[in-house]
UniProtKB/TrEMBL annotation:
Stored InterPro entries: Ebi-like, LisH, WD40/YVTN_repeat-like_dom_sf, WD40_PAC1, WD40_repeat_CS, WD40_repeat_dom_sf, WD40_rpt
Cellular compartment(s): Nucleus
One Gene Ontology MF term: transcription corepressor activity
Pfam families: LisH, WD40
Gene Ontology CC annotations of this record: histone deacetylase complex
Bias kind Basic and acidic residues: ranges: 99-133, 172-186
CDD domains reported in the protein's UniProt record: WD40
Provenance organism: Chloropicon roscoffensis
Name of the protein in its database record: WD40 repeat domain-containing protein
Alphabetical list of PROSITE patterns matching this protein: LISH (PS50896), WD_REPEATS_1 (PS00678), WD_REPEATS_2 (PS50082), WD_REPEATS_REGION (PS50294)
WD repeat locations: 198-231, 270-302, 311-344, 419-460, 461-506, 507-548
Any single GO BP term: regulation of transcription by RNA polymerase II
This protein's UniProt keywords: Nucleus, Repeat, WD repeat
Amino acid sequence: MSITSDEVNYLVFRYLQESGFQHAAFTFGFESMVHRAEINGNDVPPGALVSFIQKGLQYVELEANLNAEGKHESGENTPSDFTLLQPEDLLTKDVGELRRTIQKKKEQRERSQRQRDRDRGDGGGDRQGDKPPKSKKSKTAQASKERDEKKKSSSGPSPMDTDAGDAGAEAVKTEPGKEGSAAEEKEKLIAEDEVRSLRGHTSEVFIIQWSPKNSLLASGSGDSTARIWDVAGGGEPICLSHVTAGGPAASKEGESPAPADQGNAAGGASKSRDRDVTTLDWSSDGKYLATGSYDGQARVWDASGNLVKTLNGHKGPIFSLKWNEEGKYLLSGSVDKTAIVWDVGLGKDKDAETSDGGGNKPSGSDAGASRGSILQQYSLHNAPTLDVDWRTNDSFATCSTDTQIYVCKIGATLPVKTFSAHTDEVNAISWDSAGTYLASCSDDCTAKVWTLSEDKPLHSFSDHSREIYMIRWSPKKQGGPLLLASASFDATVRLWEMEKGTCLYQLSRHEDPVYSVAFSPCGDFLATGSFDKNLHIWSVKTGKHLKTHKGESGIFEVCWNKDGNQVAACYSNSTINIVDFRK
């Protein structure tokens, strides 16, 4: 098969016409005599030249990933090790150079993975089962092993002297009074009578979230259950089983669970990790809880524990799940590389959705739960989707291990904006409360802030020395500056001021990776949780360390209740602690 120069000239001519370069098209067509090409223009689809070039680049990319025998360099005929290349590399390098580039990227990935394995205490061994390398919120169950035997030889990272993120940055203020007296440090310890432990899960608790309307706390675990705890009222939690034998079921702790759950009660030896609850989110009115798990299903429960919706559409684990503000749509992101907007349809014929034909609520099965419908599925990323976040009731952003961030709108098939400045996996994204700024954090050790009016980031914060796992915006505060908190594997948390683009404080009391950070509802306090087992509470105004509670194992998540007087933390040893915090 070959293509003639006349045919190439015709494709260029059509490209110039389609792009609006009418004068250039006329001149080029006249000089190249495109009329000689015996081509029926009606048979050539729009964008043909660009399409051919893109397919050619994909062919070169595929060729570079294969060896002389036509097999993947790894020896496996699987897409898991396929290395994506940048267009500038494909256009400027030959196949040999591209293969050397791929080899360097592969070695870099392996070094990064070995470092992450050491941090988790894996010793660099293989991952469990066939799970993806990373999960939003949990970083998968691999990180749950205790790391006491691998304490760092130093007491923590050296404080940074200046902000290297943006030009003209001011000096960074490290946490004041860090070298306090022994008496002062002891006074900061939270007394045990101010801590309440919630026990019931039989595996790591990856995620927790308070209801925005009351004292209910939801938790998701590797034991294939979510639980709803009435912290104020006490009593046994409602157990939301995600094991499908007999159907998902809700039960009070102490009642007989579904047969497939009995192995968990006996110690979990027979439990499959395919039902790990990796993400959850309360609706803004506090009436419904959505959960996502490794089985690829999203489920919607009411606050009493009734399963009212099951959402089937993803072909891989769900890493992120968010309600829009009005509670009409649910957004999910998955390892299958897609994001789905679900029309949940709550409030419509609710009795029919949550009852059988006689009006009785189902017990021990999902027979009364209706199926949510897919409003729109977005297949934009070419790698797992790690996080999603709504901007408005009909627009949102997604991020992925492919380094890309897309801003999408319901009804549009293409993204309305693409952000491409990160050079490694993008772990989390978050819009500020006004929907003006989008923050992102990545394994490239940077946090970035974007606006829809610019293609390049407004701020790029590069002071962290390790991967950044979580970011959080400060709540809207009258007259106060907008702040962004970033939590990193370098064991530090940083507070960034948006208007100046500078680091306000570096909080450096943790000794191990920091997985979670949360502002109090009033915005005056910050809670941080790390795998060093410590929950710290800080003053946002001064950066001063205020309180500490040391748990029994690594912390995955911290969050405040709606009143700002209690902080919840979930741990890798299956417990949840509620810390009483009075200002």
